[in-house]
Amino acid sequence: MSEESPVRRFQDFRWQQVDLLAYKQEGDAPFKDITRQVLFQFPDLDGELRYFEMAPGGHSTLERHQHRHAVMILRGHGRCLVKDKVFNVGPNDLVDIAALSWHQFKADAGEPLGFLCLVNVLRDKPQLPTESDLAELRRLPGLSAFLTETC
Amino acid sequence: MSEESPVRRFQDFRWQQVDLLAYKQEGDAPFKDITRQVLFQFPDLDGELRYFEMAPGGHSTLERHQHRHAVMILRGHGRCLVKDKVFNVGPNDLVDIAALSWHQFKADAGEPLGFLCLVNVLRDKPQLPTESDLAELRRLPGLSAFLTETC
Questions:
Q1: What whole-number distance in Å separates Cα of residue A144 and Cα of residue A122?
Q2: 8 Å CB contact of A46 and B49
Q3: CA separation for the pair B57, B41 (Å, rounded)
Q4: What is the mean pLDDT of residues B12-17?
Q5: Which residues lie closer than 8 Å to B129 by C-beta, 6 or more apart?
Q6: How far, in Å, CA of B78 to CA of A126, rounded?
Q7: Alpha-carbon distance A10 to B91, whole Å?
Q8: What does the alpha-carbon distance between residue B16 and residue B14 come to, in Å, rounded to a whole number?
Q9: Mutant choice from B42, B66, B92, B101 vs A, greatest count of A C-beta within 10 A
Q10: Closest CA to A103 of A56, A62, A43, A147
Q11: Which pTM value belongs to this model?
């Protein structure tokens, strides 16, 4: 994707030569109003950098996996569930999602929430929560309301 | 570095639990007014995400290496030399620095230039230009003035 120029310009949360993609390519995992742009993906780069953006009120899938997510918020405000807590997040905050931590992002009502997400190129597939996992998460302090909105 | 909380807050281009470091840890490579913060570096992450910031008028070292740099500008405006051309860059622009491409960043006079840089954890050391390399670069259209300012 970099044959023409090593610099790809940014404008209004789109980048030159970067396609706007569906959040997920397959499956029936629940999510709402979210897109994906792959910013850096090269054969000689072991990490892959993606940009996800949720429309106001949108949310990602509640899931977990063995691979780590390294996240930086790029625009907007929202909340994220990581492992067993919900955190408020805003521009340039870092979110570290360790192996097998349940996680989910949700945009606030008034603005989109966009974030960079670094992953290993070689990574496992996400796992969805079972009813029993969800019940366990709902029992944790402060998680019930968040999960009712998003799951 | 994430034992306390998975979320590390951003304020004024510093992040919680992230040290402000010297740009380089060793050697006598030329550079000016530049710092480094390592945002994500974990044993199970194959990529490493750093934030570099140059004070107004500051610049990075002119160098090249086998490993790829995947760069996103986070603040400010400046110029970067990549391979054989100089480009203007601004917030959220992407810069792809392929294997063995000479590269150097310079902040404009009026504001700092800060950028994210993704690299492989396993990577080779930078090479500095010889006098002959510099002479060759200076002969390329538009590079002479840039190099006179920074080298």
A1: 33
A2: no
A3: 29
A4: 97
A5: B62, B63, B64, B102, B137, B151
A6: 39
A7: 7
A8: 7
A9: B92
A10: A62
A11: 0.95
- Backbone φ and ψ for A100, nearest 5 degrees, come out as 60, 20
Nearby residues of B32 by Cβ (< 8 Å), 6 or more positions away: B54, B57, B58, B59, B150
Residues in A closer than 8 angstroms to B72, CB to CB, are 39, 49, 116
Look at residue A150 in the predicted model and tell me its pLDDT. Answer: 86
Q: Name the strand (E) or helix (H) holding A132.
A: helix A131-138
Are the Cβ atoms of A70 and B42 closer than 8 angstroms?
Answer: yes
Secondary structure of residue B151 in the 3-state scheme: coil
Please answer whether residues A103 and A61 qualify as being in contact, where contact means their C-beta atoms are separated by less than 8 angstroms.
no
Residue-wise pLDDT tens digits, A80-110: 999 999 999 999 999 999 999 999 999 999 9
ipTM value, please give it: 0.94
Beta-carbon-side half-sphere exposure of residue B99 (alpha carbons within 13 Å): 9
